[in-house]
Amino acid sequence: MFRKMMKHLANNPGLKLLSILFSVILWLAVVNVADPDATKSFSVPVEILNKDVITEMGKVPGIVGDTDIAVFYITGPRSYVEDMTSDDFNVTADLSQVDLSQDGEAKLVPIEITAKKNDKRIDINRKTVNMQITLEDRSEQKFVISAETFGDPADGCAIGNVEVTPNLLKISGPASIVSRINRVTATINVDGISGDVSDNVMPVLYDENGLTISSELLEMNQSVVTIRADILATKSIPIRCQVSGTPASGYQYRGVEYAPETVLIKGEAAVLNGITAVNIPADVINIDGVSKDVETSIDLTPYLKEMGVSLVDDTANQVAVKAIVERKETRIFNFDTKDIKITGLSNAYELTFGGTTTTVPINVRALEEDMDALEPKNIEVILDVTDLVPGTHTRQLTINLPGDKYELMNSVSVQVTITDKNAATQAPGNNTGNSNTDQSEITDNDRNTSDKPQESEDISDKDDEEDGQDSNQDGSPDVN
Fold this sequence. Notes:
Elements: H1 2-10, H2 13-34, E1 37-45, E2 47-49, H3 52-55, E3 59-63, E4 69-77, H4 78-81, E5 89-94, E6 107-115, E7 123-126, E8 130-150, E9 157-165, E10 168-174, H5 175-178, E11 183-189, E12 197-201, E13 204-206, E14 212-213, E15 219-220, E16 225-241, E17 251-259, E18 262-267, H6 269-273, E19 278-280, E20 294-299, H7 301-307, E21 310-311, E22 318-327, E23 329-336, E24 341-343, E25 349-353, E26 359-366, H8 368-373, E27 380-384, E28 391-396, E29 398-400, E30 407-408, E31 413-420, H9 421-425, H10 431-448, H11 453-474
Parallel strand pairs: 2-5, 8-11, 16-19, 24-27
Antiparallel strand pairs: 1-4, 3-8, 4-7, 5-6, 6-8, 8-10, 9-16, 10-15, 11-13, 12-16, 13-14, 16-18, 17-22, 18-21, 20-22, 23-26, 25-31, 26-30, 27-29, 28-31
């Protein structure tokens, strides 16, 4: 039985498909001819007529709630109903029809709804029958129109001066609405723009929460204003900071850090081409006598203004600056006397250092990192004995440090003894040679060791004895 039914259904498929298509067409034709009724809802703002009736009373109407939005629906043949939009209706409330004798603050104004087309084909059913108003005191205020932009200009461009003409707007209406107005703006679209642009726009009213305010009851002396935006070239330039003054003794200026290091400025292309950097004068950051880092914040605005440019981002005008001042370290190097460079020593003389110490202390001050790199071999120590004669002498060393970053904290003197090599090799009893040598030592000591009277006295007594011996031999003293 089932197989027989399936076989019957499978026979003549073309004929069966044609039957189904014919049925659909027939149904559409019937529906289209019958055009059954349909329903459609609308919410349309109410247009207020004859407001002067209220203003002549020294009052202005105030809307209660959302009663100035008419809610209604229409019925009729589906073809006509579906063809209707909100713009196809006149929705009005005539204030000349208000009944001022009504009790209470709210007064009722009948709402009239008429269709601009198909009015004989459809029925209008109103859910909102009346608009409710209150009679308020009239308020009038003036607002400065703020210029705003929308979008980003083309690459390499920035928004310059933006002006609104006229920039003063007078608004009047119910005090309850006017008092809500916090600011008035006019906006121009600059998205992708590379040149100056202007437009005529409607001012927009905002409350303190940033919500727009729109009311049929407000009147403005300008419904349209002109807004113009200048589009400028941009350029990224470095910031350069100088410092002035000298830190306290024992401290050294290491450099200056600041952020940001570059800023994006805007201006006329001809002006930008001549600008390479924004320079902060040295007297702005003074480190005179300081013993710690100096930190400050600098406003770039006045320096850019002098150059005839401004920042692309007005909020990026502050530069955080830090002048780094570091304390120096003091270290003593024990310099071996054998490494002291001797200058001015006669070939006939021999020099030895006095005492048992074989080193001299050299006190150096520098930054820690520089101090760690300093070794005794980098220090040049010179002893100049030019014109010194045999004897014992105290002489100051000349110390040369490797660069200005090192500071010598002390002067160093050494005691040396100079002897005549020839006198040391003469045979004992050669009084003439001894007399000459001793006479030289007396002369040198008289000139250079006046601060050692005991030593001078001993030398003089010895010379007197030797001179006596020489005079006995020659009959006269030997003068060198």
